[in-house]
Amino acid sequence: MDKRSQDDTANEPNEGSEGIPAPDGPANLIDTDYVIGQDNITSTKFGIDFDLHGKVFTVSSLVILFFVIVTLAFQNQVAPIFNAMFSFLTGNLDWFFILAANIFVVLAVVLIFTPLSKVRLGGANATPDFSYAGWFAMLFAAGMGIGLMFYGVSEPLTHFGTSLAGDGGAPLGGAEGNEQAAAHLGMAATIFHWGLHPWGIYAIVALSLALFSYNKGLPLTMRSIFYPILGERVWGWPGHIIDILAVFATLFGLATSLGLGASQASAGLHYLFDTPNTNVTMVVLILGITLVALGSVLAGVDKGVQRLSQLNMALAFLLLLFVIFVGPTLLIATGFFENLLGYVKNLPALSNPFGREDTGFTQGWTAYYWAWWISWSPFVGMFIARVSRGRTVREFLIAVLLVPTLVSILWMTAFGGTAIDQVISDGYNGVQDAALELQLFTMLGQLPLTAITSFVGIVLVMVFFITSSDSGSLVIDSITAGGKVDAPKPQRVFWALIEGAIAIALLLGGGLTALQTAVITTGLPFTLVLLAACYAIIKGLMSEPRSV
Length: 548
Fold this sequence. Notes:
By secondary structure, this protein is mostly helical. 72% of the residues lie in helices and 3% in strands. The strands form two sheets. Strands 1-2 form a two-stranded antiparallel ribbon. Strand 3 (40-45) and strand 4 (48-53) form a beta hairpin.
């Protein structure tokens, strides 16, 4: 990799331009003649400004629009195709997704303990752009908000039930007939899917993007990570393909989350107000919330995303506290540490990619989750990169790995543990028998103030929906604008509308299976991209000056 000092490039056009700050203090910039946005098409039509990377935007938008139209036009025909694809991919490639996720986590953890962790993102003298409170709120809200709402009760309950029965979907063979062992195993399996592995994936992508943009002076886009491998070819079709794959993965990963959010919000409204729980309701919800999200998109990161993220965290924290203090408080308090130890104890077995007998669990759950997180990684990683300038690599990795993992364990312990306790101690099977999207509200129905807490739950799902949509729009717009972070706002509006359209198309074209299939299909090629990025990030960090 060709390098030069920051002082040698102080007046060149690709440094500090297009909204990307120049490195603050010593940093080794990459020696390239490429200027951010040089391949863009800049125009004004009907009073609307456009600034687009011609090839990436055109290919991405046309393929996505074609997919939406075909899926909506041939709903009955595409559903069996989605089912067959999901079964094939998870049945044959679960080991690949598990192995790849392990590599990402191991790399992230190892980097913390190496001298490379002293590198500061944004230059040796850079200072953080956001406070810890604002930073943590945006990390968590962007990372997995809707997922925690949808699966916080349903997944621990499901793994508890399959473990108790000892059927094919049980993690690690289950604990047939033993309620306490099944509960512990169910919680460990749930935390496995929401702990270090997803955040290890996000951390690697975010760290790579931040390093090559803020320290190396390259555009804030996925192709920049691969400069150590591709050199100047990264600005040609090899780079175009990487960015296009990132757009596809991000859009379908987001659409899955939006689809889950819409189905849960619809179920919650039906539970509280007896509104119809139909596809029409879900489509109306997606349309309405997408329109609300546009306002946040136009407000930008500081005013829109950060404020909504902080609102999310406040509401989520209040709901969490309510469940802890009104639910089985002692069980939750002791369960947090028991579940943490159970997670650590079962982690080697759960993360083993080979020779597994619990294929119902690895194929139906783990492979889907890892593909989902990988699909989300361009979106979450780029968003985390944008708000993490000024942090050291060690500070960054510890925060991104540990803080959300511990919060996820507490959340799953409170919500999932309360639901399991209702089954074991109270003999209440209603929560276990309810549909997945309704189990949160059924659990809350056994606690005081049901109407209020359920309504807060619906609001949380909707606000998480909005923050995911506007955060994703900012990221996809940056990719399709050639790495510019301050492209015209109408482009963000376009992508916010496209996200909603994909979610609607997938819901109508096959429901949850269609959403899961889209994630697996786009996550597969992008997994290969991220594995190559692991080499690039080490090369990039080795060339950087380190803080004392």
